[in-house]
Every structure is written in structure tokens, then in C-alpha cells.
Amino acid sequence: MISAIPLIGGIPAGPELLIILLVLVLLFGANKIPKLARSTGQAMGEFRKGREQVEEELKDMQDGEQADSTLDDEDDELDDLETETDKETSA
Hints:
Structural class: mainly alpha
Strand content: under 5%
Number of helices: 2
Largest sheet: none
Shape: rod-shaped
């Protein structure tokens, strides 16, 4: 028995793909399809660049927070040393 893969949840292949291509040709015309594909590719490229910029900014922010927490820890250690020195000097 042969079972067919449904269009929903699967990748269209065979006759389904031919029907989709036929509908595209009827809607947009044969000469507009390459232009449509080109503009779709450009839009995907712009989206990818924007996503990479946002990811880079988030990474920079996380690195900045880690550097700030390291500086805060060093400041706390210096404060502790100053307090110990003050106690020894006053005693």
C-alpha cells in the first residue's frame, strides 16, 4: 500500500509542486517570477543582516554586564581591604 505525504506539515513534491508553480505562473506571469524571486531573496538577506546585528548587540550587552560585574567584585574586594586596613590602623 502506498501512502501519500500530506501537503500540510510536509514538503510539497510531485504533483503538488507542479500545481503551485502553475498557479504562480497564472497569477504573476512568466516574466515577473524571476523579479519576484529576486526581491524575495533580497528581503531575506536584509532580514538576516538585521537579525545578526540584533544578536551582536545582545552579545555586546551581555559582555558589558559581565565586565561590570567583574569590576563591582574588584571594588568590593578593595573596600574590604581598606576596611581591614582602617581597623588595623585605629587599633
